[in-house]
Write a structure and sequence with these properties.
Two copies of one chain form a homodimer. Chain A is of the alpha+beta class and 177 residues long. The first copy, chain A, folds into two domains: 103 residues, Jelly Rolls (Sandwich); 73 residues, Arc Repressor Mutant, subunit A, CATH 1.10.10.10. Chain A is built from five helices and nine strands. In chain A, the strands form three sheets. The first copy, chain A, has a three-stranded antiparallel β-sheet with strand order 4-1-6. Chain A has a three-stranded antiparallel β-sheet with strand order 3-2-5. Chain A is elongated, with a radius of gyration of 18 Å. The termini of chain A are far apart. The interface between A and B is large, with 46 and 45 residues. Chain A binds a DNA duplex (30 and 30 nucleotides) through helix 5.
Chain lengths: 177, 177
Amino acid sequence: MEEGEANDSLYVLVQGSFRLSKHLEDGRRQITGFLFPGDFVGVRATEASAYTAEALEDSRVCHFPHKFLDAIAADCPGVKDRLIARGQTEYHKAQDHIVLLGKKTAEERVESFLRMVAKSIGKNASGDVSETPLPMPRQDIADYLGLRLETLSRTLAGLKKKGAIRELSRHSVVLAE
Amino acid sequence: MEEGEANDSLYVLVQGSFRLSKHLEDGRRQITGFLFPGDFVGVRATEASAYTAEALEDSRVCHFPHKFLDAIAADCPGVKDRLIARGQTEYHKAQDHIVLLGKKTAEERVESFLRMVAKSIGKNASGDVSETPLPMPRQDIADYLGLRLETLSRTLAGLKKKGAIRELSRHSVVLAE
DNA sequence: CGATCCTTTGACGGAAATCAATAGGTGTGG
DNA sequence: CCACACCTATTGATTTCCGTCAAAGGATCG
């Protein structure tokens, strides 16, 4: 677990979406996050705990190699401060995810997830701000929320009946309010 | 969510232990981590998502104020790289916690927790390496693992009967192997 | 139009939560 | 030193939410 080295590379997602996941030996998969345009993907060569990043749709990323970053940072010290701050942001997102998984019910998890996606993606949405795209399949959402996909499906149906969800299709949702 | 600023302060835990927690509005508490000697606590003034840090026992921390850090970093650019790397480490711990909460059974959670504490604290242990102190009360462990304390208690009893735990008292445990 | 994949719905079972009571530790004061 | 109160932990009985197993419905593509 060597520390003290800068990131080897930095990727910035320009268009599309990604999922990040970790796997247990027996195949169980936990999705640890989704990435939307503007998000960073840091990758270190000395990566101990393997995790996976996969595109959910056609996507474009911008790649800043190791040396390039170093060169920029030498001229502009604020760059490293931004990387530190970005790390904090990622950490706080992870903490929110931990609270979701540790304390929330299935219905609360699904509602939190839908609001999160709406917030992450909504800024780019054209026209109807309340229509939120869901680029990932149900299984990915379930694996993010720590639920079985049947439970997710039932919970979505329940939210629709309750009126919290106005429209629901495979790849988009319209939330109430 | 302003980024682009360095940490306002940095604390390093020298002796003792802390718990970090987040709270939902209705009082539910999730413990997001425990700190042992050598761990860092970063605090930013612009902290949006409030979380709480509390000592579990008499502890000592070393405080590096904002300006002091900046002064050091100006002379020694490696400091910021280390802060970036440390952030990655924290992030990876959070991801392991997410996998634990999202995918593991009660028994797996308790085993993972005990091994984590043994690993975090064991390096300082004197004499019998397999005796692991548990400075936190059962309720804190349960809130870390996303379990009720009754479930934790039953699971510990089960592990003892299985032989995975040799000795168990309120504030320490001896693991098999 | 059929094949395949993804999603939804149904019936049932089980792991953990909840409700409730007991036991064990710790500290205080008589 | 014992008795009492208080707090933490364990154990027991029951419920419930979600997981598991199974089948059917809908979308997408060649």
